């Protein structure tokens, strides 16, 4: 089957199939006499494997390792489990980082009056690189409160 058919059957775009071939993640497809790539059912099966691994967030390097283990009949399942556990650990680190960012931003949003005054703790936080700076709302000296009309 040609690259378009392999793409449709595997759920991997033709552009990504070419990329995987260029990087050596998958072997180069056989070529027809016309020069067009010719993919087998085995190639499509491997592309589906890659797509599912990508859907789980594995990096190309990890997918390469997984493919190697998948092809190796003498593999130990402990190796596969170790690789997957490492990926879980990395995902959990990323989740924690995202939760920390959301918490900090929530505190900043809650500290912002969102009124007509220019003082904004969100912008104040972005302009500084000091992690220990107090970002709570502080009254401005000499400021005169105005009513919204």
In words, what does this structure look like?
This protein is mainly α and 149 residues long. The chain has a domain of 58 residues: Multidrug-efflux Transporter Regulator, Chain: A, Domain 2, CATH 1.10.1660.10. 58% of the residues lie in helices and 3% in strands. It has six helices and two strands. The chain has a two-stranded antiparallel sheet. Helix 1 crosses helix 3. Keywords: Coiled coil, Cytoplasm, DNA-binding, Transcription, Transcription regulation. One of its GO terms (cellular component) is cytoplasm. This is Cu(I)-responsive transcriptional regulator. GO terms for molecular function: copper ion binding; DNA binding; DNA-binding transcription factor activity. It is found in: Cytoplasm.
- DSSP, total strands: 2
Series of H and E elements: HHEEHHHH
Q: Which architecture of one domain would the CATH scheme give at its second level?
A: Orthogonal Bundle
Structural class by secondary-structure content? mainly alpha
Determine the CATH topology of one domain: Multidrug-efflux Transporter Regulator, Chain: A, Domain 2
**Number of alpha- plus pi-helical segments:** 6
How do the helices and strands line up, and which of them pair or pack?
Elements: H1 3-10, H2 14-23, E1 30-31, E2 37-38, H3 41-55, H4 60-71, H5 77-111, H6 121-127
Antiparallel strand pairs: 1-2
Helix pairs in contact: 1-3
Write a short abstract of this structure.
GO terms for molecular function: copper ion binding; DNA binding; DNA-binding transcription factor activity. The chain contains 6 helices and 2 strands, in the order ααββαααα.
